[in-house]
Amino acid sequence: VTGERDAITRRQAISLTGGAIAGGLLLPGAQPAAAAATETDGELMYHVLAVELLVITVYERVIASGQLTPDHAALAHQLLSYEHVHARVLGREVHALGMPAPPSLAGVSSSGLDAILASKTVQERLTAIADERTALQLLIRAEEVAEGAYHDAIPKLTDARLLLRSAELMATEAQHRTLLSFARDPGDVDKAVPVAFVQGRG
Amino acid sequence: VVSEPSGAATSRRALLGAASAGAALVLSACSNDVDRPAASQPAPPPVTGPDVTILNRLLDLKYKAIAAYTAGIPLLEGPEQDAAKLFLQDELYHAGKLYAMIRHAGGEGDRARASYPLGHPRSRDDMLRLLHTLEHTEVATYLAAVPLVSDGETRGVLAAIASNDAQHVVVLRTELSLKPLTGPYIGAPRRSSS
User: Measured between CB atoms, which of A78, A168, A193 is closest to B143?
Assistant: First the structure.
């Protein structure tokens, strides 16, 4: 899984996009270098919430594509409901830390979302979902991006409660990835659990 | 256990044949790169003295899981056995990484105990339930340890390990015909309300 082996950091992703990532993946007015140098817990949680909102939007667009079989659509709906729970939990944390909520991505075009995903080293495109395999692959990649966001934040967070919460959510995203991989390649454990150290992508 | 990266391009599958050698395999895991093959191997992160105690406690859990998988693999067959071998490999990588971090901090990595109380699993179902319980305990313990260690990079490694073990849990629950997920998130004990 390339996301684990040639993953780039979120900072690099920000650099790739010149700090102008659509949809609030970078704090309003923040400069990439400054964000990298002095990230507070509030800023870090803002970033992971922004990624969770990205994941939610990817799920919604993939489901809307109609390419998933009923069983897999049900799985996607279940995982999407869990992502909404994550976003609500994170939203409360971000609010408590005095940060604004990241803007919703609901109004961003699929090509705009593709650009964001590309900045996270995701090759698959929402605008090119031609079959179920591609649809599931996009969801797997989205979960890897979420894993990467948490993995990037955890070394920098200072609050113990936020650290625990982030680690729990990272582990959960890793479980989602495994389930989606089983949906794509039934019974293939090597693909479902591809690395011993989950780091995600982006 | 000696951490001495060989630089060999060891694939995950390549070591599976050694799965029956038990805890002694920690040696082979540690003598290879503890991370999966990658373009570069970062130096082990710095670990402080107090972290060493925590890491040794976590390492002991890994030894127990290694012992359980080693004992359990013969009781499994087919794809379930293949998965168990794969997960044993992961546990060996984890143990090797933890050991390397402890040594890098100037600490002494504890060795595996002579034996671990695993009960008396006699069937496929017994074994899968035991492995599921152990993996779930690992996830909860590693997640709980993340805020306890002082070094940021070490926290990242613990979260990476917990996430991999959480994936093992999904596979084992599937094999046991349980719901793969228990809810919106897998948690550590004593978590505050959400």
Answer: A168
Residue A147, min C-alpha distance to chain B (Å): 9
**Beta-carbon contacts of residue B13 (< 8 Å; ≥ 6 apart):** A190
Number of Cβ atoms within 10 Å of the Cβ of B128: 24
pLDDT per position as a tens digit, B127-149: 999 999 999 999 999 999 999 99
Selected residue with higher pLDDT from B51 and A157: A157
B90 touches chain A (CB under 8 A): yes
Tell me the three state secondary structure of residue B181.
coil
**A170 touches B: beta carbon within 8 Å:** yes
ipTM above 0.95, yes or no: no
Q: For residue A189, list chain B residues with Cβ-Cβ distance below 8 A.
A: 79, 82-83, 86, 171
- CA distances to A102, B119, B145 from A140, rounded to whole Å, are 23, 37, 27
DSSP annotation of A38 = S
| pLDDT over threshold 50, residue B21 | no
pLDDT in tens, B23-59: 444 434 433 333 343 334 445 556 667 789 999 999 9
Determine the pLDDT at residue A18.
34
Taking the C-alpha atoms of residue B3 and residue A45, their distance in angstroms, rounded to an integer, is: 35
- Give the three-state DSSP class for B105: coil
Closest residue on chain A to B37 (Cα): A5
Instruction: Kindly list the residues from chain A whose CB atom is less than 8 angstroms away from the CB atom of residue B181.
Output: 78, 82, 175, 179
